[in-house]
Design goal:
Layout lengths: L2 E6 L3 H11 L4 E7 L3 H11 L3 E2 L2 H5 L6 E4 L6 H10 L3 E4 L7 H12 L5 E3 L7 H11 L6 E9 L4 H5 L14 H17 L2 E9 L11 E8 L4 E7 L8 E7 L2 E6 L2 E7 L17 H4 L19 H15 L7 H20 L3 E2 L1
Parallel strand pairs: 1-2, 1-4, 2-3, 4-5, 5-6, 7-10
Antiparallel strand pairs: 7-11, 8-9, 8-14, 9-10, 11-12, 12-13
Helix pairs in contact: 4-5, 5-11, 8-11
Length: 353
Amino acid sequence: MTVRFAVLGCGVIGKHHAAVIDGLTGAELAAVIDIDPEAAQALADKYGVPAYGKLDDVLALDDIDAVAVCTPSGDHAGQAVAVLRADKHVVVEKPIDITAEAAAELAAAERTSKGRATVISQHRFDAASQVVRSAISDGKLGDLTSAVVSIAWWRSQEYYDSGAWRGTKEIDGGGALMNQGIHTIDLLVWMMGQPVEVTAYAGRLAHDRINVEDTAVAIVRFAGGALATIHGTTAAYPGVSARLQVHGTRGSAVIDDDKLAYFHAADGAKEAGSYGGGDTNQAAQVLAADAPAQTAGADPSALSNAHSTQYADFLEAIATGREPLVTVAEGSRTLDLVLAIYESAETGKPVSL
């Protein structure tokens, strides 16, 4: 079975999705859609497929099975709902949308559709992320106690000025967290479980003509009692890597720039000294030496090839009827945490989830 895709949105992200689909067994790029006819035609010509100006025109076609939604964040859920109501499958770029109400509407549409949906969270498929998640599930890190997220990136004023939707709360939904930091925040939630309370601060400290944050910090408490700190900024020149630390009573792991930089799980009682032990970094042992490098980091032009792995997971979910690894519910939970951070920063009060 080959799933025939249309890509909605022919910008940088749409072009990446088109390339992924074109190179994937079991998928075929069959159409592209954009309100800008020149952008649509240019991408269509590259792959020898038809170009369309309206999503509805493609949804009426019987030979289109799925749509990849690669438009500005505030349009995601509405367009994905239209796809599902046409009983087609949909891949939604991150974030799922910018409001909880829109995400809930998407969830409702999937329940009544013959189509399936997934939200792009490609870093869940990175080799490092898979290793740490498996270690947590297997109890190798013991009881989780804390985590640290830091996304210290740089985006110039020219970046925000390059698109009318960039840096706008109405369309982009937020700044350093909603746009850049949401991938690492998604990994945090995937590793640590359900967040229950957050306290946060946010500010616009280095950019003009935007109405969203370029710097934010938050403290998160999870259902199991673990605590985490989140630091996200696009005002850290020249930009360093995204980093996630996860700590437990029996081990710790550090993912830096999408790579497993550190891993240690206790080996029996001999490590239970008063001041810890086991200084050896076990990352090389638990991560295959020939694992592919799947990095995006602070450079948006170096998009992760883990997109291909997530697409393959979605194709298998369609073929077998199982849920994809990243469901609408999972995408919504990550969005809920980001929105809670924004609410806490705005009100100056802790917010319960």
